[in-house]
Amino acid sequence: MSLVELLAQADERGLTAAGLACLDRCVPLLGGGDEVLRPLWVSLVEDGAEWGERIDWLRESLGAGGPDDPPGGAPGSVDGADPATGEAAALARRMLAAVPAEWSADALREWAGICSAAALRIHRLLDSADGPADGPAGGPADGTGGNRTGDDRTGEDRTGEASPLVAAELRRQETVLVLLAGHGAAGVRQALDVSTEGRRVLRAVVSRRARARV
Fold first, then answer.
1. Where does the record place the region Disordered (predicted)?
2. Residue 94 CA: distances (Å) to CA of 75, 112, 115, 131, 199
3. Domain count, the chain
């Protein structure tokens, strides 16, 4: 089953996990610690309990605004490291700003689509070990194309296969949705493990790019 189909069939918990896992993997771009999203993961297990309050706390802790605020820098973010990393950080901030205050299927589905497209775009931007990535290879530059996830899946590289970094991100997105569809709340722990692995990979990529520019 494709990523688009998995998103279309997911319930509130699955959609929340999908968006949250994408955001969690991109925390290194926001200057946040590994545990900064833990309250939202707890809310996910508790059927959205205190979701809005925990989002407000998260945005305050990361210095991010809400959906109606213009994008800005987050304390400790990696803007300025190189153009690709700066654009990736801006996409991650937009993912955070777009988190819906309402724990509802419609709002969460839109957010999950935004996060999916943005996370794939981020990994595409950073998929150069020795320095800034080449120009964009399809997909919306602002990461707001929530319904264009399929375009990102088939358009990572219009001349061949998706790069290893992007392909791995796509697999993680699909795995999270499959886990939640098959196990419900019991799959959250495994989804978090998948996200943690991806976060470590992205953190290493960001560090490598920063070292390459020294």
1. 60-84, 131-166
2. 15, 12, 9, 24, 18
3. 1
* Pick from 192, 182, 175, 20: nearest CA to 108: 20
Helical H segments across the chain, by residue range: 3-9, 12-25, 38-45, 51-62, 83-97, 105-125, 149-154, 164-183, 188-212
C-alpha distance from residue 191 to each of 78, 95, 122 (Å): 26, 19, 20
| Tokens 């996830």 belong to residue | 149
Domain containing 150: what range? 3-212
Alpha carbons 6 and 3: distance in angstroms, whole number? 5
pLDDT in tens, 79-130: 445 789 999 999 999 999 999 988 899 999 999 999 999 999 999 999 864 4
Q: What's the CA gap between 178 and 187, in Å, rounded?
A: 9
